[in-house]
Design brief:
Length: 250
């Protein structure tokens, strides 16, 4: 049982490289239960790779990751078990086209967690109602807009009841008018106390949702601060140049 302010997720001296190319260089980061941490930075700085390492989709060269105080990168636990506690939503929705919305959502709980279909469906329907898509439970992915598909993908991760949610540029593939509906769902999750690590280029959203902003560049954490401090008084020239692109610099 976590005590108040104890980290739920701990990353210690994480290194990741592809051949001679260092992608993540000595990354250390703690995330507490109920905290929303947003990672921003230029393309290619290692943001998405960091999330993929946390979720076991990329092997690491050194360092360790702990969830709820227990190491998850020491090879002693199966990633299929770990991923039940670490939900992840990607840029692409990856919904099965031949399955209804409801069947897409309950596949994980029934097949991986062994939950009964009726119980899983009840949980899925509650979540669909929460995001305004209960009327789409019997629809197929081809009948949904991009924003609706991404909201279903979020529900698919939530129904597994993870301890932490990872979001990797979930609005990047959406048309501008569909971005807001997805961000509104994530904002509501944040307000409800969900623990979240979010990679995004949506600076206004980052400013609104984050408890803490991490700025990465060149595979390193350059700054870590409150959104107020980061967006109004960034500590480094590199962060100021980055924010100037989004007209945050006055």
């Amino acid at each position: 049982m976590l005590k108040e302010n104890e980290p739920l997720l701990e990353i210690r001296h994480l290194r990741k490289n592809y051949d001679a190319n260092d992608v993540l260089n000595d990354i250390s980061l703690d995330i507490c239960k109920g905290e929303v941490v947003v990672v921003v930075g230029p393309s290619g700085c290692g943001k998405s790779t960091l999330l993929r390492c946390i979720n076991g989709l990329e092997p690491i060269q050194s360092g360790e990751i702990l969830l709820d105080g227990l190491p998850i990168t020491d090879g002693k636990k199966k990633w299929s078990e770990i991923r039940q506690k670490i939900g992840m939503v990607f840029q692409s929705y990856d919904l099965f086209p031949h399955m209804t919305v409801l069947d897409n959502i309950i596949l994980g709980p029934t097949k991986v967690q062994g939950r009964k279909r009726e119980a899983a469906a009840k949980s899925a329907e509650k979540l669909l109602e929460r995001i305004g898509l209960l009327d789409k439970k019997d629809a197929y992915p081809r009948q949904l807009s991009g924003g609706q598909k991404q909201r279903v993908a979020i529900v698919r991760a939530l129904v597994m009841e993870p301890a932490i949610m990872l979001f990797d540029e979930v609005t990047a593939a959406l048309d501008p008018e569909m971005v807001r509906e997805v961000l509104d769902v994530m904002l509501e999750l944040a307000r409800s106390g969900s623990t979240m690590l979010i990679v995004t280029h949506e600076m206004q959203f980052a400013k609104a949702v984050a408890n803490r902003v991490i700025f990465m560049d060149g595979g390193e954490i350059v700054e870590s601060s409150s959104p107020e401090e980061f967006f109004l008084q960034p500590k480094t020239d590199r962060a100021r140049r980055f924010l100037n692109i989004f007209n945050f610099e006055k």
